[in-house]
Design goal:
CATH architecture of the largest domain: 3-Layer(aba) Sandwich
Strand order of the largest sheet: 2-1-3-12-4
CATH class of the largest domain: Alpha Beta
Number of domains: 2
Order of helices and strands: HEHHEHEHEEEEHEHEHEEEHHHHEH
CATH superfamily of the largest domain: Periplasmic binding protein-like II
Helix content: 25-40%
Oligomer: single chain
Number of strands: 13
Shape: globular
Strand content: 15-25%
Number of helices: 13
Distance between the termini: 39 Å
Largest sheet: 5 strands, mixed
């Protein structure tokens, strides 16, 4: 299925009427990802925080998550969750995009992203990755470039291996079957594959010890037309983030349901920490890293990407 067909299918699915809908709530079409860094979206949904804010939120997960920015531009979604670098790249290319709320923070003290190899792999160092195949998704993302930077900083050569596009839920199996030699994986899938993998490194430390890793975006036009909806969504996400940070045990069954893993697996995770406010200082490190490694053609002030109601 090509990207245009994916967008058309997504638009049809989001437009389909639901069996029951409260007439007192305003519908929002959201694209999310069933991973712990996006957990606040699902907590707000399941705990009634969106409903309390007067929102009827439909959350969809496209099979090709690379289309989320295109979905916004095409009007197939109102708000999307995506990795920070995807948003920054789209913005720098001139696509209409603005960041309205933060998702998870990458904190070196509580890592949730890993470079893994099979437990019985002969790979012991960055240098041993020469000639190997590494897997993750999406490619040419902050994750892949962070791995490249980490490898180069630890005695290896990022030009001597290749990448394969493998969805996060399939990385553990791909490693176990020898289809790939190493994987950049995230929670909860890294813990799910813990019995058959081992840690080689923590690549995000090559970006910064502390930075915003993902966020919620919309278009400036939609935000300008719906400032009240933006404010209500942001308030609900903040409430869910505060709750998620304080209630790892209670949030585990919700995350497990959407990620389709056992609650026991989620309870073993190094859980995501959700940013409780949107700060330019937490966004700037990825912009500067992106410019340094040519993911972006030039750096820019993080404040230019952040939504301001009075702009």
């Amino acid at each position: 299925m090509n990207r245009r067909a994916s967008l058309l299918g997504l638009a049809a699915a989001l437009a389909a009427p639901r069996a029951v809908r409260s007439q007192s709530l305003t519908q929002l079409r959201l694209l999310g990802l069933p991973v712990d860094p996006c957990g606040a979206l699902y907590y707000a949904k399941d705990l009634g925080m969106f409903e309390k804010a007067g929102l009827d939120v439909d959350i969809s997960t496209p099979a090709d998550y690379g289309i989320v920015v295109s979905a916004l531009e095409a009007g197939a979604a109102d708000i999307v969750y995506t990795q920070i670098m995807q948003g920054e790249q789209a913005f720098k290319k001139g696509l209409p995009l603005t960041m309205i709320a933060p998702a998870a923070i990458n904190d070196a003290r509580h890592p949730t992203n890993y470079l893994l190899v099979a437990k019985d792999s002969p790979i012991q160092s960055a240098r041993d990755l020469a000639g190997k195949t590494l897997g993750t998704s999406p490619l040419k993302s902050l994750g892949t470039y962070a791995v490249d930077a980490w490898v180069d900083a630890h005695g290896g050569d990022s030009k001597q291996y290749k990448w394969a596009d493998v969805p996060f839920p399939l990385l553990g199996e791909a490693l176990a079957r020898g289809r790939i030699d190493a994987a950049f994986d995230i929670e909860p899938f890294a813990t799910q594959a813990k019995s058959t993998t081992r840690l080689l490194g923590r690549p995000y430390e090559a970006v910064s010890p502390y930075f915003l890793g993902a966020a919620y975006f919309t278009t400036p036009a939609w935000a300008a037309a719906h400032p009240d909806l933006v404010q209500r969504f942001v308030s609900a996400i903040r409430a869910a983030s505060l709750w998620g940070n304080a209630n790892h045990d209670k949030s585990a069954p919700i995350m497990a349901k959407y990620a389709k893993v056992d609650t026991a697996t989620v309870l073993q995770l190094s859980r995501a920490t959700y940013a409780e406010s949107l700060r330019a200082a937490d966004v700037q490190p990825t912009i500067d890293f992106g410019a340094k490694y040519q993911l972006l053609d030039a750096a820019f002030p993080a404040k230019d990407l952040i939504y301001h109601a009075d702009a």
